[in-house]
Amino acid sequence: MTGDITTMKVDAVVNAANSTLLGGGGVDGAIHRAAGPQLLAACETIRRTKLKKGLPAGKAIATTAGDLPAKWVIHTVGPVYSISEDLSHVLASAYTESLYTALYLGARTVAFPAISTGAYSWPMADAARIAVEAVHSLAWELGTDIDEVIFVAFDSRAEAAFREALRNRGPLTR
């Protein structure tokens, strides 16, 4: 769906973060602004204790959601797009590690942005394909307890790319 991920009434919102976890532009900045100072404080604590060098690309970690309607924010770092190196496995990992984190938290509903498609320049159609495949593959593998995954697109072009990727992937059936 096209929408504002910061307004999603889900258990967990995924943040397309940078490795510092301290906010930035795009989705990351919007989530930090909407969540308020509690989110920044939680991220600063993580940086001081668990992730002194920052969050690596393809990994995920959760915090409280501050003023967001969600219960948790799951921060993940996608890779910067490169035409000379295939980093699609790192982008897929950002989605699967976020879902593993959601499962650990007991989240039943998760909202994802289009990770790496903003400042990290990943082509939208390819990013949507990788995202849908990663989520479908993990759901198939685990038979997860997550009831709903929502891809929240920031504009109609992104929504069309995700709808096309979902059409091409087909339904998840066992």
From TrEMBL:
InterPro entries xref list: Macro_dom, Macro_dom-like
Gene3D superfamilies, per the entry: Leucine Aminopeptidase, subunit E, domain 1 (3.40.220.10)
All copies of domain Macro, residue ranges: 1-170
Stored SMART domains: A1pp
Pfam family, one: Macro
Name listed for the protein in its UniProt record: RNase III inhibitor
